[in-house]
Amino acid sequence: MYRLSYYPWLTQNVPQEVIAAQINMFAREIEVQLTRLGRAGEQVRVLPPLEVPEQIDQIVGGGADIALMNPLGFIFARRRSGNVEAIAVAQRIIDGRRGIVYFAQLYTHKRSAIRSLAHAAGRSIGFGLPYSTSNFLIPAAMLKEAGVHPLAGFSRVEFLKGHEVVARAVYEGKVDIGAGHDGVVLDLSNQPGYGDASDVLIQLARSPPIPSDPVVVSVLESGERGMLKSAIVAAGNTEVGIGALKIFWGNTQGLEATTTEFYQSLNDALLALKFEEMDLLPRKRTL
């Protein structure tokens, strides 16, 4: 039996019970593909969702065999254990084409009068979670490259826990600048009450390509890992698999085989910003 882990917070406008149902459908599709590879009767059990810090502990500690992870969570897991490997990557439609990268952006409201990252200094900014790749890490690297410290360079920094929450905060004037994936403004414009978001929220900067979300495995012998990789990639490209992952990761078009090396640029960004795991992954305190 394989144990499949996932995190709960990416698609905030989808109820958790719907996401859980879709992840279970994906797991059943993996079982179908394992049967086709000669592993009839092999089960994939979906574990309860965990926040990213706990999911990292789980995959590193042997509590899960397969994990749907965010890119930065995978990098921190890999730093802790060489047994954690990326085997598949989510495909999305970006710039009208299917691909395995996406982009981050920094954006503002037209009324702010901010028109470049240099003008952002001293204003307020909203990030998502500190361990989000496009909702914090890459925008932070973009700001640093523009000469604005991603934390000390602002009058106020808020971590608002999600792409859509940040976009709403910028739209409503609660923060001057927002960080997120480059489709977040369009997503907001499709929500009731925010129909003009694409007109009033403007992009200040777009990132270089970011590796898309990985499917990760842990502590598997190479032959078994190769078999499971084939099953997972095949499952992610069936009609059922694509539909399930589209609900979870948003706009997913399927899976493509990948390797751990594909994610090296994110480790480079962490090194450039001098961020360590304890800086970005809050841990629950015990009394």
Mean pLDDT value = 93
In the CATH hierarchy, what is the superfamily of the largest domain?
Periplasmic binding protein-like II
CATH fold call of the largest domain: D-Maltodextrin-Binding Protein, domain 2
Q: pLDDT below 50 for ≥5 consecutive residues: which ranges?
A: none
Question: How do the SSEs run, as a string of H and E?
Answer: EHEHEHEEEEEHEHEHHEEEHHEHH
Task: Label the structural class.
Answer: alpha/beta
Main beta sheet: 7 strands, mixed
Number of strands: 14
Radius of gyration: 19 Å
Overall tally of domains = 2
Quick one: overall form?
A: globular
Q: Approximately what portion of the residues adopt beta-strand conformation?
A: 15-25%
Can you count the helices? 11
Distance N to C terminus: 36 Å
CATH class of the largest domain: Alpha Beta
Estimated helix fraction: 25-40%
Query: Mind telling me which CATH architecture of the largest domain this is?
Result: 3-Layer(aba) Sandwich
